[in-house]
Write a structure and sequence with these properties.
The structure is a single chain. This protein has twelve helices and 16 strands. Helix 3 packs across helix 4, helix 5 crosses helix 10 and helix 5 crosses helix 11. With 344 residues, it is of the alpha/beta class. The protein has a domain of 135 residues: NAD(P)-binding Rossmann-like Domain (Rossmann fold), CATH 3.40.50. The mean pLDDT is 93. It binds NADPH dihydro-nicotinamide-adenine-dinucleotide phosphate. The site of NADPH dihydro-nicotinamide-adenine-dinucleotide phosphate (NDP) has 30 residues, from helix 4, helix 5, helix 6 and helix 10.
Length: 344
């Protein structure tokens, strides 16, 4: 059985959903929600393109983004949801949305004991290997549609030293023959280490990299207040918005720059579910974050292990494995034409 640990996109959405499904006791203010336990919301059945059927569950952590600044609450929400997944016997659960960010940034590895449960890390995955593979595939599929020849293109990776960013850089430099990688992050030493590992790539600030880039992969949570000089950007330019939340399309609207939601996959069949990220997808019955899909793929493949775990451990071999599984079981990466059809 696979598990998806998620959350609503906002406090307002969470309250609406709770009332719709009859959870009247959650009709309170943010403080009431802060003390709410995780909810085992529904069981899900998924059938692969191969015909294999698997069962899973969606657990809402009852975290909402408005709680991010409440460190202890955020930590408790994620750990309680993980405990629930383990106690229900779920073999592999993906930490979606902010839950994986909270896990890493608040170092929850140090909190393996939740009441009388010792969390078994092998039951959980961040889903980052599949996310990185999907972003690379989105780049390879969509840049040529805009007339961008990857063999001549400069690709900026914003968040290059992160877990997903470093995997994207490894893949792009080894597998796609892009002309040049532009490596962007704030701390210099990890950038220098990455450059050494890749034996290439140019380290630039964001302001320096953007005007040079034909493609920009955003795999950092950027501040909403980020100011970008639209005039200085190359045209055409493909922006892959791999961060969470996805907020770049509004920033670039009408500027002639093409923004693609990164790390999103579409399944071959409709799935009957009512999960927390529905509001973020154009086709909620089929589309999902690639990190969630990783838990399904590991279940399809009978691979019950913390496949994506820790930081900067994603290898090309692991990306090959999860990418092949993704295609075999009927996932496709979101492309610009899917987005255009949805907008029409
Ligand atoms: P990490 O924390 O491992 O990496 C973040 C990277 O961003 C680091 O390189 C960091 O380097 C850089 N960074 C952070 N802030 C800035 C800034 N202001 N300017 C430039 N660089 C910055 O994160 P992950 O790789 O795990 O995740 C990356 C993003 O992807 C997150 O936003 C996450 O939510 C999202 N994500 C999306 C998924 C999906 O859509 N399917 C699934 C999973 C994650 P430094 O600190 O040196 O600047």
């Amino acid at each position: 059985m696979f598990g998806l640990i998620g959350h609503s996109t906002s406090f307002e959405d969470a309250r609406k959903t709770a009332l719709q499904i009859g959870y009247d006791h959650l009709d309170g203010d943010l403080d009431v929600w802060c003390s709410a336990p995780p909810q085992f919301l529904e069981q899900i059945e998924v059938e692969s393109l191969t015909g294999k059927k698997i069962e899973g569950a969606y657990i809402d952590s009852c975290f909402v983004p408005e709680m991010l600044s409440r460190f202890k609450t955020a930590r408790r929400k994620v750990l309680n949801a993980m405990e629930m997944a383990q106690k229900r016997g779920i073999q592999i659960s993906a930490l979606g949305g902010f839950t994986s960010i909270i896990f890493e940034n608040f170092n929850l590895l140090k909190h393996q004991h939740v009441r009388n449960t010792t969390l078994e890390w092998e039951r959980f995955t961040t889903g980052n290997t599949h996310t990185a593979w999907v972003i690379c595939r989105q780049l390879e599929n969509n840049a040529p549609l805009l007339g961008i020849d990857l063999s001549k293109a400069r690709v900026a990776v914003v968040g290059a030293t992160g877990d997903i960013g470093s995997a994207v850089c490894r893949w792009l430099s080894a597998r796609t023959g892009v002309a040049e990688l532009l490596l962007v992050a704030r701390q210099q030493q990890p950038l220098i280490d990455l450059q050494t590992e890749l034996a290439g790539g140019r380290i630039l600030s964001l302001e320096e990299a953007l005007p040079e880039a034909d493609v920009v992969v955003w795999v950092a949570s950027m501040p909403r207040t980020l100011e970008i000089d639209m005039e200085s950007l190359r045209k055409p330019c493909l922006m892959i918005d791999g961060g969470y939340p996805k907020n770049l399309d509004a920033k670039f609207a009408g500027s002639g720059v093409h923004v693609l939601k990164g790390g999103i996959v579409e399944f071959c069949n409709d799935i009957s579910w009512d999960v927390g990220w529905i509001a973020e997808m154009d086709k909620p019955a089929r589309q999902m974050f690639a990190c969630f899909a990783e838990a399904m793929l590991l279940e399809f493949e009978n691979c019950h292990t913390n496949f994506s775990w820790g930081r900067n451990q994603i290898t090309l071999e692991k990306m090959d494995f999860i990418g092949m599984a993704s295609l075999r079981h009927g996932f496709s990466s979101l492309n610009l034409n899917h987005q255009l059809q949805a907008a029409a």
